[in-house]
Amino acid sequence: MSNNFAIIGGDLRTIKLAQKLAEDGNEVYTYGLEQAEDLKNMPNIYFAESLKEAIQLADIAIGPIPFSSNGVEINTPFSNKKITVRECMHAINAKVLIAGNLAPEVYELANDEYVEIIDIMKREELAVLNTIATAEGAIEIAIANTSKILHGSEVLVVGFGRVGKVLSRKLAALSVKVTCADKKDAELAWIKAFGYEEVNINSLDKNLEKYDIIINTVPALILTKERLQYIKKDCLLIDLASNPGGIDREEAKKRKLKLIWALALPGKVAPDTTAEFIKRTLYNIIKK
Questions:
Q1: What is the pTM of this model?
Q2: Coil, helix or strand for 109?
């Protein structure tokens, strides 16, 4: 059974998603994607003249992932149009919006307009599948930004959640000496069970000096000013955590440490695969 979708704004993942939905026979009405050349002249994809038109012709509205970076406007990297969150909610009035990483304020505006919101990034199946691309992206960054091979390198993975587990496994397959840090007893036990070196986050101090690469996955400040003093000058720091991140960026800059804050890696390193994961999750939502 085909559906009519309105896709408003979004990055390369969204463009790939629009293509996949159209290829499945769905009607896709876009707005805020007029610079997406790959969508032009494609069957079942239409460029609406206005936000209102796109929404009116659709059963379900799909927004960007993340929905907004500044809390005021939705993300439209493939458009010069500025679409405010308020304007978007007003247009969607009494329909369903599926988007990602939605802030509490968005839910408040949605309530005012009787919009049902579904944060697709809170779906477990998508969160798990996205860790694969995140892990591979982190390894790609590590290879590109170090002058040594990963084989035999001392790497610390901070946090042993979904991303930490998948990333550690892939690093170990490359013959990396993997140490994992967490503060939960259960996770520390799993680290030991998987055969990695374990360390409690609360015990991180002078022992940080031995690592060639440190990859943080925890969205809370872990590598503080005090801890950064122990990190060697040529250590590569990669922060995968969402805002505010887990590494003191100002202090790292002051100490001239190489820090890469790598956000939204799935959409950057594997937009096609990520779009397939999103489509699969979207169909699961509609089915229910």
A1: 0.85
A2: helix
